[in-house]
Amino acid sequence: xxxxxxxxxxxxxxxxxxxxxxxxxxxxxxxxxxxxxxxxxxxxxxxxxxxxxxxxxxxxxxxxxxxxxxxxxxxxxxxxxxxxxxxx
Length: 88
Prior knowledge:
alpha+beta, three-stranded antiparallel beta sheet, 3 strands, elongated
């Protein structure tokens, strides 16, 4: 049985053409559908390294939110991230 990856780590799979593909969700569009980015490589290890680089490039939104964040800061972060503009 394949090892299950944690949420937010992306997916790795072997394609029919023999190459490995890695995918990660970087956000969601206005309709709520996921926006994904992918990488391909000849080996699984190389693909995992490329996927990690992709995650670093786009960042992880959950890392910017912590449990001790005051509600005002959280709502500002949410508004800027999902509405695309800064509050007035």
